[in-house]
């Protein structure tokens, strides 16, 4: 498919959706299980392309590890292959090779891993040449660039002869993702000492214990269903999302609180969470530092519902699958919206006011979240999504699930 027409939905909605499982939890569990000797039983692993790429590369004996466009897979496997003394060339798509990895490589080099850049300094592709001996048991790393660097280092720390202490410099972004890593490590028998006041994470030398681990459904994927309910013009709307937990490890479960301000009531059930339509606030302000993957979803809802918004914590969006800030600015304009940077790199305002393009066509920029964030606008108007196949990265069944409530038509 190259384009898909999502036709305007009208009438009530009463549906149950079994969400895809969490890519974030799956990828961490796969690395930890590999570090425990592949002895555990991982249940409900994600079918997302990123996770399937991780599974394939963990099994592969090839000298080249091509992660395609999977950033988490690139970062986690770089640390895993390096510390397990494997010789690998790490590479990916052209966009993947534009996404920085220098902070992680510097940290691994300081520990004792031998890594060379094969093209541009600070970016993939890289050549991993093994791990001979531990040079230091304490490192410092910026906390405001990518929590995935920190998680990658945490997961390999127990295997180091002297353990590892990680000092986090500056502000710390996406703390819930670091906490998720710590909780999953604990599920496999490893203790992490986290002192958030002093910004210090310490792991003594330990052995992971193989165990059975159940992956939760994906709260990031849930956000698009919250968007559907928020944007629905009919009040007779109920969607139950199956497989979600009230006390989740996933930072994006904060969508419950965000959408309570934007017109969606959440009620937890024995099977998941029930979404119902309610009244939205007139204004909205949120710091996305700990949940950057929700920013696109929320921006679209604000513009469509003509709610004035203020966003902070978007710093990491420019180094994702695409420059998500620029992509949002381009595509929101098609529904009369703006995302304006009012304080350099820290504060953005979301506004609406202009008219909609007739049957707007949205570019996806090789970014799964662009496709899934804009498709719920079909609650208001027919929309066309370019290159809809990008959803395979995190939520392969997205169009199948969305097709339960709207009509879809493939376009040439």
UniProtKB/TrEMBL annotation:
InterPro entries in the cross-refs: Enolpyruvate_Tfrase_dom, Enolpyruvate_Tfrase_sf, EPSP_synthase, EPSP_synthase_CS, RNA3'P_cycl/enolpyr_Trfase_a/b
Domain Enolpyruvate transferase stretches: 61-402
Keywords: Amino-acid biosynthesis, Aromatic amino acid biosynthesis, Transferase
Pathway: Metabolic intermediate biosynthesis; chorismate biosynthesis; chorismate from D-erythrose 4-phosphate and phosphoenolpyruvate: step 6/7
UniProt catalytic activity: 3-phosphoshikimate + phosphoenolpyruvate = 5-O-(1-carboxyvinyl)-3-phosphoshikimate + phosphate
Enzymatic class: transferase
Gene3D superfamilies attached to this UniProt entry: Enolpyruvate transferase domain
One Pfam family from the record: EPSP_synthase
E.C. code: 2.5.1.19
Protein origin, superkingdom: Bacteria
GO MF term list: 3-phosphoshikimate 1-carboxyvinyltransferase activity
Annotated SUPFAM superfamilies: EPT/RTPC-like (SSF55205)
Gene Ontology annotations of biological process type: amino acid biosynthetic process; aromatic amino acid family biosynthetic process; chorismate biosynthetic process
Family classification: Belongs to the EPSP synthase family.
Protein name (Swiss-Prot/TrEMBL): 3-phosphoshikimate 1-carboxyvinyltransferase
């Amino acid at each position: 498919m190259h384009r898909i027409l999502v036709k305007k939905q009208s009438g009530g909605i009463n549906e149950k959706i079994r969400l895809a499982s969490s890519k974030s939890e799956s990828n961490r569990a796969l690395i930890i299980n590999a570090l425990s000797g592949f002895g555990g039983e991982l249940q409900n692993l994600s079918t997302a392309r990123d996770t399937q790429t991780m599974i394939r590369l963990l099994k592969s004996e090839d000298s080249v590890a091509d992660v395609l466009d999977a950033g988490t897979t690139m970062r986690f496997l770089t640390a895993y292959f390096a510390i397990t003394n494997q010789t690998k060339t790490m590479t990916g798509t052209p966009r993947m090779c534009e996404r920085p990895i220098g902070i992680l490589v510097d940290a691994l080099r300081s520990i004792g891993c031998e890594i060379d850049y094969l093209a541009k300094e600070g970016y993939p592709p890289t050549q991993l040449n093994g791990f001979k001996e531990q040079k230091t048991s304490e490192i410092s790393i910026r906390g405001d660039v990518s929590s995935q660097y920190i998680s990658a280092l945490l997961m390999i720390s127990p295997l180091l002869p002297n353990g590892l202490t990680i000092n986090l410099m500056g502000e710390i972004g996406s703390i819930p993702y670091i906490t998720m890593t710590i909780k999953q490590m604990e599920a496999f028998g490893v203790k992490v000492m986290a002192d958030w006041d002093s910004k210090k994470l310490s792991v003594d030398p330990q052995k992971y214990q193989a165990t059975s681990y159940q992956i939760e459904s994906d709260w990031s994927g849930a956000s698009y269903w919250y968007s559907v309910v928020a944007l629905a013009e009919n009040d007779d709307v109920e969607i139950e999302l199956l497989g979600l937990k009230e006390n989740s490890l996933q930072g994006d479960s904060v969508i419950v609180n965000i959408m309570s301000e934007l017109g969606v009531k959440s009620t937890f059930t024995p099977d998941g969470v029930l979404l119902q339509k309610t009244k939205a606030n007139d204004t909205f302000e949120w710091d996305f530092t700990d949940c950057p993957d929700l920013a696109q979803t929320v921006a679209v809802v604000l513009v469509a519902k003509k709610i004035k918004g203020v966003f902070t914590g978007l710093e990491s969006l420019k180094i994702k699958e695409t420059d998500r800030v620029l992509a949002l600015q381009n595509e929101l304009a098609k529904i009369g919206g703006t995302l304006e940077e009012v304080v350099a790199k820290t504060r953005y305002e979301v506004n609406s006011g202009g008219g909609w393009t007739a049957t707007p066509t949205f570019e996806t920029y090789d970014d799964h979240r662009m496709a899934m964030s804009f498709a719920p606008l079909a609650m208001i108007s027919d929309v066309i999504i370019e290159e809809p196949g990008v959803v395979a990265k995190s939520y392969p069944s997205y169009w199948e699930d969305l097709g339960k409530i709207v009509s879809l038509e493939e376009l040439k």
